[in-house]
Amino acid sequence: MYIFKYIKITSLLIIFISISVAAFSMAAEEFDVVVVGGGLAGLTASLELEERKQNYAMFEARDRLGGRTYSEKHGDSVFNMGGEWIDSDHKGMQWLAGKVDVSLKKETYDQPIRVTIEGNELSSEDRIALLKSIRQKLTPTIKSLDASQAWYTVDWQYKSLAEVLPDDLSSAERQFINAYLEADEGLSLDELNSFCMNSLHEDLGDFLELLEYKESSWRPSILRNRSAYQYRVKGGMNQMIRAIRDRLSPERIRLEHQLNRISKSADNKFHLSFNHNGAIHDVVAKSVIMTIPFSVLRSLELDESLGLSDLHREAIQTLSYGTNSKIQLRGEMEPDLRYLVNATESSTTSWKLVSGAGLTIFMGGKTGRTLSSETAVPLVRSVLRSLPTSEAGSAAGAVEEALFIIEENWLEDPFARGSYSASGLHAPRLDIPSALKAFNGFREFAEPVGGLIFAGEHTQMDNGYMESAVRSGKLAAKYYLSNRDSF
Ligand SMILES: Cc1cc2nc3c(=O)[nH]c(=O)nc-3n(C[C@H](O)[C@H](O)[C@H](O)COP(=O)(O)OP(=O)(O)OC[C@H]3O[C@@H](n4cnc5c(N)ncnc54)[C@H](O)[C@@H]3O)c2cc1C
């Protein structure tokens, strides 16, 4: 009897508790501001909000922070699988490293630079002559485009760089340009927007200066003013990610929360629906710092109530992302080869041999895209064969003995869908100067819409890459802090 009564009371209690738990879990969590995405942009924004004791939370889809930057340690070698190099003028990244007490390692351009075309290494005179000739051929086209303002016509914006390069470029010159851009942008000539011709001219000028510097004792301006050297985070990018994470309150970091839908209600509050291990987690906030790359954001449900402009929607749908996949080989190679542009048909584009981290092969454009469908080893071997004999000996040996090969194809990654936003073909209206005009420091197509503040590498083009991620995260937090009362 008593037992029966006890069971009844207990059952009622359990039912009551279950109902309360269900009701509790169904209720949306509420914050003043939420950061979506835990890459460098989201982490920087969160750091700023944390320091100013804001009521915020950061939601990240993966089970780790860092987004397109992370490193792995295997034996003595550290492999950076995504973003890695910090240019000398990337002051935002240097500021962040200092702020979280992370050491940077300086890498200079003191190693030889080599250029091979169809497997043949060019002599120093040949490569300098090649670059001078390319620049000479590009100059008249650029001048006439400047004079006629033809850059800005719709006709131009839909063309690829391959279509607009001068006809008098030789096949070797075209191959070289293609390999150079694949390494730099992760897109090939026929995938890049015609507008890139201007920056190509400047970049090749810098490269020429570097090559000439190797042949003589004068110091070119690029070594004085621009990216004369680069930094990397000592011990790999995870050191930096961890250092930032350790400065954030653990309860503010929500991993494995994938945003599916966002809308705005009449009271100006944002409603975000996350998938958390199969369950729906609803969140309400007055403001949102949205750092998801547009390559991913385009597949999410962005409700009409958000009030996005046509330009925003076009950018979200079309902004293209370069592919820069990496194959990394563990080895004991010395850093004897700093920069190699390898212009072959099946161009695997750029190499960096770095002591302690083995050999990294960067593959841009279509080559990068085939990474997932090809076995890495034959691809690597074919490229090693095109190296000058002295390096081929050591590098090929290292491949045979490599304990493992790590491949990362960022195009296939569901939360990145590319390496970084570049001036690709499918961004017709986005790369013209009027759209690059800063609005409160944001690109026009990424300007804040009420309390919805965009951040991430794609929202700023002055520097691009990790640098822009950091700057945009800082800017987004600043924008939130100065406007929060109006949201
Ligand atoms: C192979 C490679 C090499 C590179 N090399 C360099 C380099 O040497 N130097 C350099 O400066 N830059 C480099 N970059 C670029 C650099 O890594 C990026 O520009 C930078 O990391 C972008 O940071 P972000 O915060 O803007 O974006 P991300 O790092 O992409 O952060 C966005 C975050 O949003 C999360 N997310 C996505 N979808 C959702 C969702 N639905 N819900 C919740 N969260 C979501 C993602 O998981 C991610 O963590 C490289 C990139 C790659 C891939």
Average pLDDT, to the nearest integer?
80
- Helix/sheet category: alpha/beta
Residue share in β-strands: 15-25%
The N- and C-terminal alpha carbons lie at a distance of 60 Å
Q: How many structural domains are formed by the residues?
A: 2
The bound ligands are: flavin-adenine dinucleotide
The oligomeric state is single chain
Instruction: Examine the secondary-structure arrangement and name the CATH architecture of the largest domain.
Output: Alpha-Beta Complex
Basic shape: globular
Helix percent reads: 25-40%
What's the main sheet like? 8 strands, mixed
Instruction: Give unreliable regions as ranges.
Output: 1-25, 333-338, 432-436
Number of DSSP E strands = 24
| CATH overall fold name of the largest domain | Polyamine Oxidase, Chain A, domain 2
CATH hierarchy, class of the largest domain: Alpha Beta
Output the number of helix runs. 17
Radius of gyration: 25 Å
Characteristic terms for this protein:
FAD/NAD(P)-binding domain, single chain, Polyamine Oxidase, Chain A, domain 2, 7-stranded mixed beta sheet, binds flavin-adenine dinucleotide, 487 residues, 2 domains, disordered N terminus, alpha/beta, 17 helices, 22% strand
